[in-house]
Structures are given as C-alpha cells and as structure tokens.
C-alpha cells in the first residue's frame, strides 16, 4: 500500500493536499535513500566475499605455477630446499581433527544428553551457560594453557602412561617430547566442545514431545525414550553439530601452532610432533622468503579455505535438512 | 487353531516386561553415570583454564603493569599499556566499520527475498566458517602488501571482516523473531519504509541485536591470527603479545603472557556476560 | 468373537482359563462399599471375566499451586467404552494422563487413589513402566515414530518391553494391525516409513501400536480431533469393535461421539473456582436423556460449554 494512496484517503482539502504532496515527495526520497543504503550494505558485504575468493586465489597463483597442481597433495614441505607441497600438512590436519573428534564427540554428546534429558531444570540452565563460556575463551589463551601447562604434564605423565596401556599403547609409542599430535587434538577437542554441546542440545530440544510421550506410553524407560525416540529424530542436528565442529577444528591455527611442534613430516605415533595447514601458515609466514615462499604459504591458505568451506557448507545443509524433516511429518496430517 | 494351549500373548508381554525392567533400569543408570562423567569432563577444561590463568597471571598484575608502556627486554618496570590501548583502537575501528554495514545488509536480507538475498545469506553462512587465519591472509594481501606496510587499519579491516557475517546472521535472526506483521502493519499505515524499519523492527529486536553484536565483538577481540598478518609489532595488541611472549623461552616473558591473558580473558568473559545482561535488562524494560 | 478377524487369543484364554495370573494383577472382586456413581451390572461383569477394572477414589491432580481437577471418584468398568466429556479445560485430559502415570514427567502431582484391580498405581513399589504396558494410550495427534517403518512402529512397544523373536513380532504386528483395521492397507508396505500414511491411517497405526502390547485398558485422548469425518467414522467403528476385548476410556469434546460409541459417560465441568470436577457419571443414554444434575442437563443441551 503506497503512502500516496493512504494520504489521498486521509486528506480531502487542498491545503492538506499540498502538505501531503510535499510529504509524499520527501517520503519517496527517504524511501529511495533507505533502499540505496541497504543495497550499499549488501553490496559492500558481497564485494568483501568476492574479494576474499579472488584475492586468495590470485596470490597463491605464483605458488601453483611453481609447483603445479600437485602442490595440494605432494609430500614434502621443505622451504629451505625449495620444496613446497601441502600433502603432509593435509594428512596431519585430518589426523588431528579426527583424533579430536574421537575425544570430543562422546563427551559432547553425553553432556548434551545430560543437559537436555537428565538434569533437573535448576541445574541445566547454569550448567549450559558455564559450558557456553568455554566458547568465549580466546584461542590464544587456550593455546597458552596448552603450551605452558599441558605440555609438561603430557610429556612427563600422560603420554608415558598411555604408551604403557595394552593394545592402545601402540598408538602412543616413542619418545614423548611434549608438543605432539595428541596434544593438538586435545586442544582442538576443548575448543570445539561448546559448539557440539549447544547444537546437539538444540537438536534434542527440537524433538517433539509427542514422540517422547509415545515411547513412554508404551512402557519405555527414560533411557529407552532417549535412545529410540530422541536420538533418531535428532540425527540430522547432531550430524550438523559434528560437521561444524570438524570445520572449526580444521581451521584452528594459533592454538595448534603452539602445541604441535612444527614438524612437517609423517608422524610415527600420536606422541610425535607434526604440523597442520593452519599451524604451518602461522609458523612459516614470518620466515617465508618473499615471492614463492609467501605465495606458497598463501596457497596453503587456499587449500585450507577450500577444505573448511566444503565441510561447513555440508554442516549448514545438514542443519537445514533437520528442520525440513519435521515439516514433512507435520504435512502428513493434512 | 488351539488357542487354549498357546500361551496368551498378553502373559508373554507381561512377563517379558517385568523380567527386562531390571536390566533396562540398570542400563539407564549406567548411561546416566556416563553422562555425568561426560559433564565433568566438559566443565573441567574451563575450570582449569581459569584456574591457571588466574594463578599464574595475577601475581604480575598491578596498576603499574596496566598503565606503563613496555620496556626493552630485561629492563624491569614495563607494562602492557600499549597493547591494551592498541587492542581498544583496533577493535573500536573494526566495530565502526562492521556494525553499519552488517545492520544494513541484515535489513536487506530481512526485507527482500529472491535469489540475490539467498546468495548473500549463503555467503554469510559460509563466511562464518572461514578460519580467521585466512581472513588475516586476505587482509595482508589487500592492505599490507600493496601499501608495503603493516597498519592498524589492516588489522581493523580483518577483524571487521570476521565480525560481519556473524553480525549479519545474528541481526537477521533477531529481526525475524519480531513478528513480521508488526512491520507490515507499520507499512500499511503509510509510514516511510525507513522509519518503519527503524522504529518498529529495530526497537523490537534491540535486545537480541545488542547481544548478538556484543558477542561477535567479544569473539573478534580475542583473535590472534589476523593480527599476525597485519600488525607491525606484538606490542600493538594483547593477543599478539600473548603469542610472542608465551612462545618465548624466558620465564619473565611467559609471566607477562599469563598476566596479559588474564586481562584479555577477563575482558572477553565480562563482555559476554554483559551482552546477555544487557539484553535481559532491555527486554524487561520493554515489558 | 467370530467373523473376518482372528480372535484375540488373550480374550478367549481369559474367558476359558479363568482369572489371569501374573505378579501384580489379581482377580478384581470388589469388596462391599458401594460407589454411588457406578451401576451394578458392570461390576459384576468385571469379576466374571477376570479383567480388572479401574477404580478412582478422590483423585486430584495439581500443578504447583494450581489444581487442575479434583475430587474424582469413579469406576471404569471393564470391557466397555467409558467416555469422559466436558468443555475444554475442565481436566479430562489431565485426569486421563493420571491413569497411566504420565504425570511423572509433566510435573503434575496426583493425589487420591487409582487402582487397577488390586494394584495401586501410585504405590511406592509400583513401576510406572509396567503400569504403562497394562494401560496404553493413544494421543490426540497421531504420533508414529518418524524414523521407523510401519512394522517397526507397531512392534516398538514389544521391543521396548524385551519381547523379541521375529516370528512372534510378525504375528503380533499382523494381529494388532488387523484389529486396527489397517492390515489390508499396509500389508504390502510394512517397511515403508510410517509418516507416509495419511492422518487417519497414522492414527490407526498408533492404535495398532498400543494394542500390540496387549494392554488391559486403552486410554484415548480425543483421538479423532485432528482427523476428517471419514477417518473419524473409521476410528469410531474401530472403537466399537474393540470394546468387548479391551477396556476403553475415551476423552472427547464431542458429545455425539460419546453418544455413538460409549456405554458409560462421565461429565466433567469447571467449578466456580475454575477447577475441573466430575459432575455426573452413568450409562450414556441416561446421562443424555435424563441427567440427574442440573449442570449436566445444561451442558448436554448445549446451554453451557
């Protein structure tokens, strides 16, 4: 309904007509200005996104020209020898993320189940706020804590102990220097935990009461309700939570750089140092020789960008699919 | 069919239910125990982080420490004032850059639908997941390389880029939770579209807008990686200082790192708590 | 019990073999002490066929300070359909949920005594899970488990209670689906997702799911209110057919439905203090044609509610 139509209804007299005509003129200009502003805001943001893609792409082009597309998976990263290959780094990145998820997902899920299904109301609120605070801790502080507090503990106590455990100990064999894949994974687990807990909680909360009541009315115990009615319905949401946590872990650079030991080589066990894409960028950037060196570091960034964007897009899609499934069930009732 | 000899199914169910109930309940209790263990494991890192930061940083902390500028290595009496003011400047400028653009872009997304808006929303979602180090590289490529110098402008630009997508999505969500018909009612009464947006939607969404923006700011204030690529000296920001001093081999540097970490942690946690408090207060006053 | 359907083994066994055995049930012989509202014939029917009836005595359900329904004393005779009618908000659903201890999870406090035969539902030693295998429930909106197929839904209650064995589950599923008048519809799509059925079919699936556990009593909370008239008619027919085998307690806001399917009707209304209470109970025909209480007369003639 345009302003013109309304003011036409309201103002019969000519004096009022003139005033409303002026108002109409001003309001149309105001409308246009506002519309232009919004376009500007959106446009600037769009420009930034495009710029990011183009910029990172073009600045890594020198590196790609030098090493070829094999850059992405070739094995050695040895700037001193002029060899630039991201392969090892990708392996280490995936490894640390995988171990981090193995550690974090059970704890995150268990916590989410507790907060959502088992805890009394007076406890679940404050407790989830507390866990949410962990998300606010800057990664540099977590890195500092990992470096100065965890490293000696891991080197002297945790890693030797783990190496002595039967069966699993094989994963942790070898000299424990301290900085290691394992330590990096622990740090990543700590940092991704709040995301997992909060998204999983949301997924559990989104399961309709009707599903739970249906299970209860059939004689199920509380845990059976959770396992058979809540979990299946929350599957998409929990998958989204894990995927987004993975995305976050892949991209974490500073905290990992401080505890992983900066050794771009295939790790023999979880207690040896390594290097991820993010940590290599942090550690190598200052020393990189200008030109090929810097360009290669930027190219690492491009690889990391592609990896995280792919994973995050998948996670967002999973989040949306969870909401879609609910609509489908509701639709059947018509 | 001889039903008299076949055991009644009802009896079967009753017996099975009774027999399995003890096992089912025990399983439930065990799972509950495991979940409690998980909760303890989830809370422990936060407790440990705060504990160590406080115990190792508090002793170095003093008013002098906060107000004095850093001194050359091994000369006592230095502080981190430049880092504190530096962080404030960088974050402040980033806020000035990010909030107007994000608000306008969010209004754009809120009011329009269609392919362009969908593409924009998708890019915002994608951008929230871009690692901060990539943003740092980008800022380096765009503002540092061409101008041949590091600058706080580049740093603010990087932080603003970090905040933008988070703020845009949070703003749009906040606006959507305000009933769409409030906005339409305003338009139907003939008011200017700009005024309708400002007075009705923004005022209604204000608590959530404030919370969302403050949280994004808290997140950006704690970032290190983008600053690595854009700042000339670690003395210009707290996060960088923590990194440089923390990885140094000298205990005195590490002590500075802990103290700075304590300052930063307190600031960020306070901001997060304040964000939620402010939103709670505003929404209470509105009702 | 002849005709197109296979006879429920349980019904025949119960009739032929006498009282049902089992840890927490006993033959329901009512001691003396007449309850003013219940009619004599159905009580005798209960002891004859060995399926216990539900007895409520001064039941009150409250949420914190707010009392939802109070002072309900009522006998639910077995093998009949008892309808609970009344305007919305007068506590019928709240009361229904007290009958299978669902309020353990809603925060409602249930006072008074509810007995299934000799079993006190709220005694400290009584396990709610076991109560719910004997007293099943069908909800207002169909709620099949969305992640399960038709078959998995029907046998889910059996699985919860530790009944396994493929053949057994298959037989139970077929029997339950036949009793819910759904077998012919789904027999070729047993393993398709349950959510693909129409609303009315989903509700019948939920009924089959509840029946598979062989409850003695089936609680139905306005089961047709989310359905179209044709689906409603199918379910009403189903209720009438099931009644001789399973005791049914039906909450409905539709007086005509009560008239169509229920042998006995209990009328609930809101008292002056906005608390629900039982006003009158008796054979349906009497309650509608010659109600004893003025408030009932006002309600059934459409003046009130």
Relevant terms:
heterotrimer, A: mainly alpha, MetI-like fold, 2 domains, two-stranded antiparallel ribbon, 76% helix, flat, B: 287 residues, 0% strand
Polypeptide structure, described:
The complex is a heterotrimer of chains A (334), B (287) and C (305). Chain A has 334 residues and is mainly α. Chain A has two domains: 3-67, no CATH class; 70-333, MetI-like (MetI-like fold, Orthogonal Bundle), CATH 1.10.3720. In chain A, 76% of the residues lie in helices and 1% in strands. Chain A is built from twelve helices and two strands. Chain A has helices spanning 3-10, 14-59, 61-67, 87-118, 121-136, 139-164, 181-205, 209-217, 222-251, 254-259, 277-285, 292-331, and strands at residues 77-78, 83-84. A two-stranded antiparallel ribbon of chain A has the order 1-2. In chain A, a hairpin with a 4-residue loop joins strand 1 (77-78) and strand 2. The longest helix of chain A has 46 residues, at 14-59. In chain B, 79% of the residues lie in helices and 0% in strands. The longest helix of chain B is centred in the first third of the chain and has 49 residues, at 9-57. Chain B starts with 8 loop residues before the first helix and ends with a helix. Chain B contains eleven helices and no strands. Chain B has helices spanning 9-57, 63-67, 81-111, 115-128, 132-144, 152-177, 180-188, 193-221, 225-230, 238-247, 251-286. Chain B is mainly alpha-helical and 287 residues long. Chain B is extended, with a radius of gyration of 27 Å. With 305 residues, chain C is α/β, with parallel strands linked by helices. Chain C has twelve helices and ten strands. Chain C has helices at residues 9-17, 40-49, 92-99, 128-134, 150-160, 166-179, 183-186, 199-212, 229-242, 255-261, 284-289, 294-300; strands spanning 54-63, 66-76, 81-85, 109-116, 119-120, 135-138, 217-221, 247-252, 264-270, 276-283. Chain C has a ten-stranded mixed sheet with strand order 5-4-1-2-10-9-3-8-7-6, with helices on both faces. In chain C, a hairpin with a 5-residue loop joins strand 9 (264-270) and strand 10 (276-283). The model of chain C is unreliable at 1-49 (pLDDT under 50).
